[in-house]
């Protein structure tokens, strides 16, 4: 399937559009993708987080302004943006100012290649999956720069922990994704989605789609746990660890810089949801006509978000040494076992 | 149409988001610097010492291990892409066995790191903090 800019160019009657038109179309679609993801993660995300946590803990949460209190989030954004920016004494500038921009940027870049359904996909390079992992791991740079440049001991400890966590969980994450590439035989994300469109089997008239999450549920479970660790969500949120480190690497950040870190973290949750949806849940596939794709895509990334909030409410935080052991001694070994087993099974089927 | 032009345009659009937000905030926010406000946060106490200190980061060996495994993932991806065709063309043994040997070497390395205690978080009683 063609990407959105290509499809629009063809609709306008250009088989090979001039460079200026190509850039304009790319910019328009990029604007649409960025707007959708910012609305999801900056407005609906924090609102849902507060509501879901309140439901888990038997409270009401925000309900005064707007339907269900949703405009409180917009007001919060304006409030935080108009707050005084406090630069601590020990801050190392300009590193202190650059770090908050890195986190949301690295997460947003990942969305450029995600097939969101209804034809909404900006670019579809041949190495799409590797590209997503490459740009999303830039986030660790933002964390370590921010933690060091703050000049606070909490920040330093938090950033060191975050990096330890990122490097412990990135390998199992990528190796588990490699086991899906074995099944799909391609790194192009639209082809990985297309490879999941068949029917796995039919039980009592209900056909189970050939999503890789159904084909290899073990890999899905592994990937879910690992991506919780990679984006630093509970129970693996030791980089922030409110009760131990105040706020980790964001301790000294106030005003708009805090908003950017916060936004970056939400974007990363939704990016990992988008990757899980694409690799394991059939991307934008679902019942009904094809133009409903983006709705199904939204349902799936919100299901993953709900899962992260469920873990946040239900599972206590692991200690930092436990985090290291779970990553290197548990998940890494399991992900290699998964890769080798998948390779053997795929190999036996294809001979 | 080139896919990477689209990615590049997207990068420009995405980078403009933090830039616009930072500059909007610069127009909105007050600036009243005070000595007390700018103190490093240490839970209300007067800060003791700086943060530019010798500090046991615990895991430089883990970081080395990470580099090894990260390069390994780069080497695994091309194999996963051609694997199905390779099994059809050259048979299961010659498509799978070399990668099994490669992964076995890595697993032996991981086992060595495990045994020598590289991936163990040292508790503070065992370490010498140097401030």
Automatic annotation (TrEMBL), chain A:
Membrane is among the record's keywords: yes
Membrane topology per record: Multi-pass membrane protein
Transmembrane helix keyword on record: yes
Lineage: superkingdom: Archaea
Compartments, record wording: Membrane
GO terms of biological process kind: aerobic respiration
Alphabetic keyword roster: Membrane, Transmembrane, Transmembrane helix, Ubiquinone
Ranges that cross the membrane: 20-45, 102-123, 129-150, 171-190, 210-229, 256-282, 288-307, 328-349
Cellular component, GO annotation: membrane
Listed InterPro entries: NADH_UbQ_OxRdtase_su1/FPO
MF terms (GO), sorted A to Z: NADH dehydrogenase activity
UniProt name for this protein: NADH-ubiquinone oxidoreductase chain H
Organism: Halarchaeum acidiphilum MH1-52-1
Automatic annotation (TrEMBL), chain B:
Main location: membrane
Protein name according to UniProt: NADH ubiquinone oxidoreductase chain A
Organism: Halarchaeum acidiphilum MH1-52-1
Keyword field contains Membrane: yes
Source species, domain of life: Archaea
Record keyword Transmembrane helix present: yes
Spans traversing the lipid bilayer: 57-83, 95-114
Pfam families in UniProt: Oxidored_q4
Keywords: Membrane, Transmembrane, Transmembrane helix, Transport, Ubiquinone
């Amino acid at each position: 399937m063609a990407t959105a800019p290509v499809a629009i160019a063809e609709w306008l009657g250009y088989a090979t559009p001039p460079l200026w038109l190509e850039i304009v179309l790319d910019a328009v679609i990029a604007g649409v993708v960025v707007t959708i993801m910012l609305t999801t993660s900056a407005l609906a995300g924090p609102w849902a987080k507060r509501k879901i946590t309140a439901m888990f803990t038997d409270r009401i949460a925000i309900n005064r302004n707007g339907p269900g209190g949703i405009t409180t989030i917009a007001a919060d954004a304006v409030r935080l943006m108009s707050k005084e920016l406090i630069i601590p004494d020990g801050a190392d500038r300009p590193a202190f100012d650059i770090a908050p921009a890195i986190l949301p940027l690295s997460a947003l870049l990942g969305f450029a290649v995600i097939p969101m359904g209804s034809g909404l996909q900006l670019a579809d390079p041949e190495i799409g999956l590797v590209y997503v992992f490459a740009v999303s791991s830039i986030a660790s740079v933002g964390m370590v720069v921010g933690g060091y440049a703050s000049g606070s001991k909490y920040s330093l400890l938090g950033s060191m922990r975050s990096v330890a966590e990122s490097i412990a969980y990135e390998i199992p994450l990528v190796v588990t994704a490699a086991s899906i590439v074995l099944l799909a035989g391609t790194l192009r994300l639209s082809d990985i989605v297309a490879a999941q469109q068949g029917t796995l089997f039919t039980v009592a008239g209900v056909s189970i789609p050939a999503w890789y999450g159904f084909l290899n549920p073990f890999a899905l479970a592994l990937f879910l746990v690992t991506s919780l660790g990679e984006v630093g969500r509970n129970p693996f949120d030791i980089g922030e660890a409110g009760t131990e480190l105040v706020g980790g690497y964001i301790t000294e950040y106030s005003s708009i810089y805090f908003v950017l870190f916060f936004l970056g973290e939400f974007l990363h949750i939704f990016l990992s949801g988008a990757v899980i949806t694409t690799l394991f849940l059939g991307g934008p596939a679902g019942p009904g006509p094809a133009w409903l794709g983006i709705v199904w895509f939204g349902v799936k990334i919100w299901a993953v978000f709900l899962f992260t909030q469920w873990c946040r409410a239900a599972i206590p935080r692991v200690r930092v040494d436990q985090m290291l052991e779970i990553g290197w001694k548990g998940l890494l070994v399991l992900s290699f076992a998964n890769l080798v087993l998948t390779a053997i099974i795929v190999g036996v089927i294809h001979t | 149409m080139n896919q990477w032009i689209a990615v590049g345009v997207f990068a420009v659009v995405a980078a403009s988001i933090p830039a616009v937000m930072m500059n909007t905030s610069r127009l909105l926010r007050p600036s009243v610097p005070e000595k007390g406000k700018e103190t490093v946060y240490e839970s209300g106490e007067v800060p003791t010492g700086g943060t530019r200190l010798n500090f046991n980061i615990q895991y430089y060996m883990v970081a080395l291990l990470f580099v090894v495994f990260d390069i390994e993932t780069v080497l695994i991806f091309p194999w996963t892409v051609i694997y199905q065709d390779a099994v059809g063309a050259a048979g299961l043994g010659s498509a799978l066995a070399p990668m099994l040997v490669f992964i076995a070497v890595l697993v032996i390395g991981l086992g060595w790191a495990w045994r020598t205690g590289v991936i163990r978080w040292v508790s503070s009683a065992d370490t010498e903090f140097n401030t």
